[in-house]
Amino acid sequence: MGRRCNLDLVLIRHAEAEEHSADDSDAGRRLTARGEAQAAVVAGALRHFHLQDAEIWYSPKVRTRQTAAALQAELQASVYRAEEALVTGNLAQLQFAWQEDQSKQVILVGHQPLLGDWIAQLAGIHLPIAKASVTFLRENPCSAQFQFLGHFRPELFAAANSSEKNP
């Protein structure tokens, strides 16, 4: 099998979730109403980034699954799946999977600090990864290095969406 070149990788931190409580597990934390709105805004904005062929991979935790569901509703990805490596932090497993699948565009919906660590490892840049923020990376042709393309916070997408509605 030949090696695929030019992977577009989009890393998204889950939207705002409920606070930790003594009786609930971390895995079961749901998005708040604000988090649901953030996820919808990000999903709507990503329509404009030509991600129609993207695969959406998400952590199996509830808050990431909800964030990914908003993306799926907007983008209708052909591949939409939970990936345990987004919880365990196994970047090598994810890299193997996207190379094995010959993926061209992958959206990873996950958690901090893992996303920030992976961005630093792949592109050599350290960023503050706020909830519902989006980072775009592009794999350099036929190498394991990634180019940083951009990083957006949900507030920017919300401002862009409101200016679209009120020209």
UniProtKB/TrEMBL annotation:
Gene3D superfamilies: Phosphoglycerate mutase-like. It comes from the Bacteria. It holds the Pfam family His_Phos_1. This is Phosphohistidine phosphatase SixA. It comes from Igneacidithiobacillus copahuensis.
